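Quick one:
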Amino acid sequence: MAGKNSLKVTPIMMGESASYWRLAEFWKLAVTVCISILKPTSKATATRFSIPMWILSSRLPATDSITIFRCYWRPTVILRTGEADMAGRVVTPNPLTREAFAPYGDVIETHDQARVLEINQGYTRRFHDLAKVDVAAQGGRTLINIFRSIPLPSPLLLEVMERHPLSSQAFIPLNQRPYLVAVAAPGELDPREIEVFLAGPHQGVNYHKGTWHHFCLALGEVSDFLVVDRGGEGDNCDEISLSSDQAITINLED
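Output:
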């Protein structure tokens, strides 16, 4: 198509203030198409109508409608979700590795650098001392628990972080399923520094004392985790809610 009224359909990502996704990722939602351009002497006008959505994406139902804000010159099409889905930034999780996670705690897994002991007359290999359990502050004692975690709804939005100033906290998956880990360094929380990792079914994590983290992030189905943390006197949980421009939307499509 050519000419001053032609449409340039270009889904784009827009900065830190809002979450904009590719069109194919909105197949479950109505799509708002905002066509914007600068023209000093004219204001955009809006018309709502239904069009065959396969023109834009074969994943979208043919009955959805779009809103077009049309200006005189070549416009750019921005595809976005509704306000409830907006977040400060979109993050694609990185694979969980011991090296990348070291500033926040321990990855609990069998690996070549672990100290391995042959025990039980040679029938058992003990991968020894894989995490630092730290619960002794203010007379604390070790607790062993099972957490049953329900996956967050999609699109997955992180809106809260917590830390345990008196102890470590370890999570070991029991359902052979991957899960997400969101963390930030101890000290004053900077939401821009939150990192997100994709943990494998055979990887546990141990958050060191004071490390900021999201609560359990099961994926796909309800999942159980063996949790090792602290019991005893003292306030051992600080929680911070993230504002709408600090919240994080997780991209699991890539």
